[in-house]
UniProtKB/TrEMBL annotation:
Its EC number is 4.2.1.17. Belongs to the enoyl-CoA hydratase/isomerase family. Pfam families: ECH_1 (PF00378). This is Enoyl-CoA hydratase. InterPro entries: ClpP/crotonase-like_dom_sf, Enoyl-CoA_hydra/iso, Enoyl-CoA_hydra_C.
Length: 254
């Protein structure tokens, strides 16, 4: 139900359940967790997630599986999804959701747990849980405001409306729109940062990642700590020297 491939410096994770629009059964969520664990052992620089088929990235939690579950089960389900998506959020290298079609409910929550989102022009996204008498349970109420602001997030969650690709780009919910094939566009985007040194990439991401979680003075302290760590790396010495010597730096991830 989940395929994991390695292509050079990239790992490609594909939700592969097209008959259910790649809906997230609990087994699929566990498979995503196992795939992330496996990819963590690989020497890669980016992880791309997408869905099989023309139609959907992921239509959300498996509604057929949710019917008839007890409140107790649902809490365990929500916590499972949150745990697996948190693993993605803190994955060792940046992740890119290549949104090839619908990304609804848990599908959009999965995409929001990625570092970046690249969407095809026919992508449609939203958090329609309210229409089912539910609210998002896999991080959507917390990650969406961080991306688009509180009032807009509340509007999206409370109306459950569908957002097209252009609007998603305009409000910062997706990072880029793809002209052609969305996975190719995600790979091209990854190529814009995978050539830099891993320590700087990790430290930059960690610093930005904390920005909305802490007060400004604490965030500035974190930035001073992390930028000092970056400054002390061999890659920084190489990058600065290469600039002076007017040559391309040879980063060695140290
Ligand atoms: N779960 C299970 N099956 C699904 C889902 C889903 N989320 N979405 C689609 N499918 C299935 C359909 O049942 C259908 O199967 P079948 O052919 O056997 O009837 C097949 O996929 C194709 O779907 P459609 O015929 O509906 O395709 P359309 O092109 O007509 O419509 C849509 C596409 C608009 C995406 C439509 O399928 C749809 O609205 N899907 C549901 C979207 C949705 O509401 N997602 C949110 C689910 S709730 C959630 O994600 C988080 C809940 C929090 C849980 C926390 C506690 C654990």
């Amino acid at each position: 139900m989940v395929k994991l491939l390695r292509e050079g410096a990239l790992a490609l994770l594909t939700l592969d359940r097209p008959e259910a629009l790649n809906a997230l059964s609990f087994a699929v969520i566990r498979d995503i967790g196992a795939a992330i664990d496996e990819a963590a052992g690989w020497d890669i620089r980016a992880l791309i997630l997408t869905g099989t088929g023309e139609k959907a990235f992921c239509a959300g939690a498996d509604i057929k599986e949710l019917v008839g579950r007890s409140l107790m089960d649902e809490r365990a389900g929500s916590e499972l999804g949150q745990r697996v998506f948190a693993k993605l959020d803190s994955f060792k290298v940046p992740s890119i959701a290549a949104i090839n079609g619908y990304a609804f409910g848990g599908g959009l929550e999965l995409a929001m747990a990625c570092t970046f989102r690249v969407a095809s022009s026919k992508a449609r996204v939203g958090l329609p849980e309210i229409k089912l008498g539910l609210i998002p349970g896999y991080g959507g109420t917390q990650r969406l405001p961080r991306l688009v602001g509180e009032a807009r997030a509340a509007e999206i969650v409370l109306t459950g409306r569908t957002i097209d690709a252009e609007e998603a780009l305009a409000i910062g919910l997706v990072t880029r729109l793809a002209d052609g094939d969305v996975v190719e566009a995600a790979k091209a985007f990854a190529a814009e940062f995978t050539g830099y040194g891993l320590p700087a990439l990790a430290l930059a991401r960690a610093a930005v990642r904390r920005a909305l979680d802490v007060p400004l003075d604490e965030g500035l302290r974190i930035e001073a700590d992390l930028s000092t760590l970056a400054y002390r790396t061999e890659d920084a010495a190489e990058g600065l020297t290469a600039f002076i010597e007017k040559r391309k730096p040879q980063f060695r991830d140290k």
